[in-house]
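Email to the structure team, subject: AAAP amino acid permease model.

Hi all, the expression group asked for a predicted structure before they design truncation constructs. Nothing fancy, just the tokens so they can compare against earlier work. One-line instruction: predict AAAP amino acid permease, return tokens.
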Amino acid sequence: MRKSTTIPSRFLNLSNDFEFAGWGTILHLQLEGSDYEAGEARIKQNDETKVLGQFTASALAGNAVLGSVFYALPAVVGVASVYSPISLFIATLTLFIWRPIMEELGSALPICGAPYSYILNVSSKTLALLGAALLFLDFASTSVVSAATATSYLAGEVMLPFPDFVGTILVLAIFTLVSLSGIKESARVALCVLTLHLITMTILIIAGAVHWAKIGNDQIKENWHDGKASSASEIAKQTFNGFCLGMLGLTGFECTPAYIARIKPGRLPLVLRNLHYPAIVLNCVLMMLVLAIVPLETILEGDNILSLLAEKAFGKGLRLYIAVNAIIVLCGGVLTGILSACELLEQLTLDRLIPRSFSRVIPLTNAPYVSVLSFTAFSGIIYASTGAQLSIVSKMRVTPHKFSLVWLVVMSLFPLALLLLKFNRGRLPRTPNTPFWVVLFALALVPIVFAGNIIVDPTTAGYFAAYLIVIVIFFSATQNKTHILKWIYGIYDQFPSLHRWRFTKSWGEKIIDLMRTLRRQPVCILVRTDEINRLFQMIMYVRDNEETASVKIVHFIDEEFGIPSELEANARILDEAFPEITIDLIIVTGTFNPINVAALAHCLSIPPSLMFMNCPGPTFKYNVADLGTRIITL
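Reply from the structure team: attached below.
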């Protein structure tokens, strides 16, 4: 029997019976051997995905972070002139603020797709959706800028037999194929690329230092005389503008938490350290060498300033070597964007924000080909849209500015997530415990740098807003499919003639069937207590954040305490209170642990990502990532 209500239908001519679900049931469940086998297999599979050590994990993001010197240095010197080393040094120091924040979040919630997954576990799905849109745009911009800069470097050294935009498309296509080989193999490729880059930059620094010692300080004095500001306020302005754009030299740092579940336990702090210290050295030392060896006029006219440095220091042979290295490492940045985006899309699929087809994989490599191809296509669209207005290759120095705001806003999501975690999930075990003032300082720093980037290039705000709006609309539509269908059903209701025409009279039933299909996927609420206020809060979360008409309240029987006395009665009350949701109560024999949760997921055909629980405390024996569940209440 379906639930009923005395509340009249919101529709004038059509029924709203579809809004009311069936009555819930109470079930005592004994998991079977096949369920336990499936649960153990799932846990084993999750453990086997943790394949990245500190160096392979560093390499995936390292090519984007350390390869950014090829486009960050020209951008910074264009606004900060001779004060560029100071600006870059200050910019790279800011990561000392972000590292403990990212480490604390990573220890609390080692789940792929961060910081989207962080926000999803500490706040609402709507805010997490916005974070996912920003993150997806950031990964796309990382790939686009890396690919376009690689082509720009190549075009600056040789005459290409094809238009430059074709080169960028080829780079994206080649590394799409590489990413389809699987994450472990891709990480090995990335490690080789990063190793070559670090060796190359070491050679360049040594060659530059030797040449500087030979020529003395005449060139740097001349550059200082030509580029110094006329007043203290002008010095501060140039240094600040350089600092704002100098954050481009850290692009890629935010990608590391996106694949944190693939990193071996305890390695994240080492990975962040491995990325940070080389970034300080490369950005600051290389910028000093450029100013000490290359005339300022030449620096400001050229984009390939590290190639110019190499030629001045050691000749055309080193210049060619630097150009080749630039192309290779920037292509590694493309790989970083693709793989990070795939981890995000996989998490969005598990959370039912995007269709399940995105999780389809190639059997041989286990690579998610739908996600890879979709992300590459989106990156191509971004490249085409900016190229139409900016002529990317000829104005490559300007292009990275268009994406700097994306990176800044994504970086702001980390302190925001930690702030919400401290207030909403404060009981969650984690280390280290970042001081509150550090979190606030990071949040305060972002709008300052954000405003500085807009002052340097106001068009950045337009590009940022345009791309973000498009992605948010797409994600919002996928998250609110049922609501959109209700609006369509309501519009159909307003035209009674459509209910009689031969070709349109069945539309109403088709819309209803589609809504019922979308709401058919059940979700689980894992509970330990029978307190109705806690149960009510969890049901409210599901109603507001999930498109479902079926909720299963699950309680694992504790041998010591048994079934809470009011649990069955309260489940019936909630079933009455929410007529649009069928609320079942399932009593499971067994203890609450990762294997039993995975076994239950197999038995009920509900993925662990759609199983919700209260925030665990310091005495909880398992990590949230081991369970695969989502935290929705304190």
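The first strand starts at residue 26 and ends at 29. The chain is about 65% helix and 5% strand. Ping us if the truncation boundaries need rechecking.
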